[in-house]
Amino acid sequence: EDDGESEKRVAPRFVKVLLSDEEKTRATAARAAVEEVRPDPMPTGKAKFERGQRVRAKFQGDIGGVNWFPGTVTAVHADGKCDIFYEDDGESEKRVAPRFVKVLLS
């Protein structure tokens, strides 16, 4: 419930768009159609990412996020998607597509 307070200059990472149920249904259907036409590439041979690997990941990239943050891979799924723990604020994100993850060079 809204308490009437407001805040200025909030970092985009802390702002989420609220969608109506109809918009959520359309977005889910559109995402499924795109994945059907253009699936994430499957890793060949060795997995692209490994648990514990330090990376930079685009937070909420699948829904239009634009900011990249440092993190650590906490799990790698069979489809190549990763679970990421973000080091800057302790947030986590599940099943991040490989196109939104880059290995940090040491």
Shape: globular
The order of strands across the largest sheet is 4-3-2-1-5
Total helices: the number is: 1
What letter string, H or E per element, gives the SSE order? HEEEEE
Structural class: alpha+beta
Proportion of beta-strand residues = 25-35%
Q: Helix content range of the residues, please?
A: 10-25%
As residue ranges, the low-confidence spans are 34-40
Looking at how many chains there are and whether they match, the oligomeric state comes to single chain
Average pLDDT works out at 80
Quick one: biggest sheet?
5 strands, antiparallel
Strand segment tally: 5
Query: How far from one another are the termini?
Result: 45 Å
The radius of gyration computed from the alpha-carbon positions, rounded to a whole number of angstroms, is 16 Å
